[in-house]
Amino acid sequence: MVERPDRVQRTAGGTDASKRRRFLKVAGGGALVGLAGCLGGGGGGGDDTDTEDDNGGGGGGGGGGGGTTDGGDDSVEMPDTLRIGHPSPARPVYNLPTYTTFLSRMEDRGVTIEPQTFSGFTGVVAGMVSGEVDLAYTTPPSLVNATSQGFPIRSVMELSQRFSQQVIVQEEVDDWEQLRGETLVAHSPQSFSALVLKTAVRQNLGSADEVNYRYIIGTPNRIAAMQSGDTLATTVFTSGAISAQNRGIAKIFYNLNDDTDPMTLAQWTLLEDQINEQEEMYQVVFDEMQAAYNDVYSGDSAELADSALNSPTNFPDFGADVWAETIDIAKEDEMFPREKSSQLTEAKIQLGLQLSQQTELISEIPDTSTLVDRRFLE
C-alpha cells in the first residue's frame, strides 16, 4: 500500500475599521535574532520541496474588510485574506483540505486563502513572529525547538496524524538487509522525510544508525537520484512514489503508517497573542477546518485532485490520476482527524515527540503544556 488557474488576490484595506480587523503583528526584527540557530538552520524543516528559490513570504494580504459570519449568537468579523505559511513551495497531500474544501468554505465567507512560502520551518516561525502570516503549521521538532527558545507559539489543531512520505527503493532491493550499511537519501535533517526514513530504518534494522544518510532537497530531485542510480532508497511524497513506480524508476517499499498508530505530526500553530486577542475569529477558522477534513472523506477523490491541481498553490503535477490515488490512500490511512476530540491528546503528542527524540531531531521531550493550547478543540 502506498502514499491553476490564476486567482485575483484581494489586498488589505486601509481604513481604521480594517486595521482593527487585521491579524496581530508582533515583535520586530530583534525578536528573530538566533531563530535560525534554535530551529536548526534555514532550509532544514520542510516536509519536502521542489528546487525553486521561493523564500518570500511577503507582507501582503492579511487583514482588510472581509465578511461576517454567525459565531453562535454573535456576528464574528472575518478578514479579507488569510495568509497561510508553508515551509517549501510544493504541497504534500496533507495540504489538500486547506486548498480545496477549506478554501471553498472560506470563500463562501468572503475570505481569500493566500499561501506564503518560506525556506523551511525556521522561516515559517520567523514569518509568524514578524506578522507575515496569519496561520502556519509546524512539525513536532520545530515546535519544540522554537518554544524552548522562548518564541510565543502554540499548537492549536492537528493538520495530519499520518505520514505523507513513502520509502521507495531500486528494483533489485527486496529486503531491508540489503540496505544495511548503505547511504540512503532524505530531504533534509529536520524534515518529515528524514523522520520517516530514520524511523523506518530503526524499526526494520534495529537502529537508525545501521545506514548512512545524505540529503537532497525535493521529491523530484530524489526521484532523479533514484533514476540515475545514485542511491538505493529514499523517501518521497506518496504522489511522487506512485509516479516513480508508474514510470519504472523505483518501487514502493514501505509505508510507515502500516506500523505506527495515529500521532500528532503536522499541526496548526498560532502566536499566543493571536490566540488570546482573536479567539472568536480563529474559532470560526478551525471549525471550518474540521468540517473541511470531513468534506475530504465524503468527497470524490478525482474531483478533489482536479480542485487541488487548479488551486492557488503548488501541488506537484504528477497527474490527476496519481493525485486521486494519493487521496484514496490518505483517506484509507485516515491522515486527517475526523473529530476535534481526538486531536492533540497527550498520547498522540507523546508518540510524535518520542519518534523525534529517537531520531535525534530533539534532545529531550518537554512538558506538553508548554506546546499546546486546546481551546479551539473543545
From TrEMBL:
Coiled coil: none annotated. Residues 56-70 have a biased composition (Gly residues). Residues 121-254 form the SsuA/THI5-like domain. Residues 1-21, 44-91 are annotated as: Disordered. Signal peptide: none annotated. GO terms for cellular component: periplasmic space. It is found in: Periplasm. Keywords: Signal. InterPro entries: SsuA/THI5. Belongs to the bacterial solute-binding protein SsuA/TauA family. It comes from Haloarchaeobius litoreus. This is ABC transporter substrate-binding protein. Its main location: periplasm.
